[in-house]
């Protein structure tokens, strides 16, 4: 049973409780599959049949490779932009252009388009983290940026506890902690690779599912290149939204205990309808 703000414990301020409620709405938005199903007009699972034999395995391998490449590119170059809002719209526009090319040229573009779009999304996620007050110099923040790629969202009419925000965080907690610790150590060059590889592998298993859904949707003949643009917009908007919610929660956890925020998260009411999320940043 959900508890409304009037009966919430007086731990967080009213503004912080409003932020937490907004974060929960973002993190429990409809899943990628639900949004793509609405776009193509039929369950996205059916579109998998249009994929060539062996492509599903190739997509999962490409997803892990794309995450690895994205972390090696200059993703953390926004260190001097403290106090400025994130450039969500800019990243969305670039992603749509990339999706338009992919939609017109087909699956052959996946090998180059996925690393590019993943890097673009990681930059956008990092930009959102920065705008929520997190330092990109902190290895824990950078690992939390990667963690965003594992959050799928909520499927309508289906209860999948292992895909819930807190369940995913718990499943990745050890890998995230180890990767951040090694990245912060003086021996980062020699020791960070195995830890980061384990984290990327754990995230890629979830991210690959969403990439497969994206690719399958692009195989449905609706509007050609225009569909690729729309699908890429849905893709990046999903990760921007969950990133905003994730880093609001992380911001509150810095001030209060993680357990406190988790318990309050489960109690805050959701008076707004999904799809009407407003960002104040």
Explain what you see.
The chain is 66% helix and 0% strand. Mean pLDDT is 76; it is low at 1-10, 188-192 and 274-281. With 281 residues, it is mostly helical. The two termini are 31 Å apart. The chain has a domain at 49-152 and 160-247.
List the helices and strands and how they pair.
Blueprint: H1 14-27, H2 32-40, H3 44-47, H4 55-72, H5 88-105, H6 110-131, H7 139-147, H8 165-184, H9 188-218, H10 225-255, H11 258-267
Helix pairs in contact: 1-10, 1-11, 2-9, 2-10, 4-6, 4-9, 5-6, 5-10, 6-7, 6-10, 7-8, 8-9, 10-11
Entry summary:
The chain has helices at residues 14-27, 32-40, 44-47, 55-72, 88-105, 110-131, 139-147, 165-184, 188-218, 225-255, 258-267. It is mainly α and 281 residues long.
Number of strands: 0
* Share of helical residues: 55-70%
Q: Largest sheet, described in full? A: none
Instruction: Report the C-alpha radius of gyration, rounded.
Output: 19 Å
Which structural class matches the secondary elements? Answer: mainly alpha
Instruction: Give the termini distance in whole angstroms.
Output: 31 Å
- H and E string: HHHHHHHHHHH
Q: Please, how many helices?
A: 11
The percent range for strand residues is under 5%
Poorly predicted sequence stretches spanning 5 or more consecutive residues: 1-10, 188-192, 274-281
- The geometry reads as globular
Mean residue pLDDT: 76
């Amino acid at each position: 049973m959900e508890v409304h703000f009037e009966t919430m414990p007086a731990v967080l301020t009213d503004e912080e409780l409003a932020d937490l409620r907004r974060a929960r709405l973002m993190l429990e938005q409809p899943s990628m599959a639900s949004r793509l199903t609405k776009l193509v007009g039929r369950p996205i699972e059916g579109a998998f049949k249009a994929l060539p034999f062996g492509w599903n395995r190739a997509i999962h391998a490409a997803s892990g490779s794309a995450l690895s490449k994205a972390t090696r590119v200059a993703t953390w170059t926004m260190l001097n932009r403290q106090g400025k809002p994130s450039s969500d719209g800019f990243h969305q526009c670039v992603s749509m252009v990339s999706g338009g090319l992919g939609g017109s040229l087909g699956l052959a573009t996946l090998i180059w388009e996925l690393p590019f779009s993943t890097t673009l999304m990681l930059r956008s996620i990092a930009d959102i983290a920065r705008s929520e007050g997190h330092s990109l110099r902190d290895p824990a923040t950078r690992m939390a940026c990667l963690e965003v790629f594992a959050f799928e969202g909520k499927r309508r009419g289906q209860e999948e506890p292992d895909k819930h925000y807190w369940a995913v965080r718990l499943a990745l907690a050890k890998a995230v902690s180890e990767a951040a610790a090694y990245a912060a150590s003086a021996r980062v060059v020699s020791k960070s690779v195995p830890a980061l590889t384990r984290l990327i592998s754990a995230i890629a298993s979830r991210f690959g599912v969403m990439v497969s859904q994206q690719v399958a949707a692009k195989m449905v003949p609706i509007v050609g290149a225009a569909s690729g643009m729309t699908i890429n917009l849905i893709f990046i908007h999903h990760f921007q939204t969950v990133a905003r919610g994730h880093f609001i929660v992380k911001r509150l956890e810095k001030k209060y205990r993680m357990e406190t925020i988790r318990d309050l998260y489960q109690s805050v009411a959701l008076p707004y309808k999904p799809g009407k999320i407003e960002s104040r940043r």
